[in-house]
Amino acid sequence: MFRHLTLALALLVALTLPVFAQDSGTQNKNLDIRSSVGDLHIGSDADARKTGLPLYPGARLKSDDENRNQANLSVVTEAFGMKLVVANYDSDDAPAKVIDFYRDKLKKYGKVLECHSQKHGGDVEVHDGKDSKDSKELKCEENSGPVTELKAGTEDNQHLVAIEPRDASKGSTFALVYVHTRGKRGDI
Q1: What phi, psi does 91 have (nearest 5°)?
Q2: What is the pLDDT of residues 113-122, one digit of tens each?
Q3: Mean of pLDDT values over 12-36
């Protein structure tokens, strides 16, 4: 059930954030709701720092037209909590350089897994257990395609970097992702 709720919330953000950003007239508007039931934050205020990873030297936040996938979402209640941060960047460097940089930086979160997929975010798993001790090791769902995904952590506390070559030019595009979920106990 927790997995379905998390996926429903992620879908809500995917549908709401572009509309919210269009209506707001400014780039860094946030929606914060605090209540006795829980707290909700939805914003386009995602950046590398909020994912827990450093920004690759010389990387640039994707331009506004492409920046609809920037998201900072957190939902905190007594029953569960979830934090999702997604930040997208461009670099003039080849994917191999970006991969080497983030492979080293992800080591502080545990064993670094390298997967390959057809597109960004193809296999972010979320934990549906009650305690962090139930958290499962990350795995690759598919392992072929132009996107390299570096993952570290566990299903309920993971850092992911998805790197791919830019379409018609040299360089790379990459997404930094942080996902943290919890059951009744723990902080987000």
Answers
A1: -140, 150
A2: 999 987 755 4
A3: 58
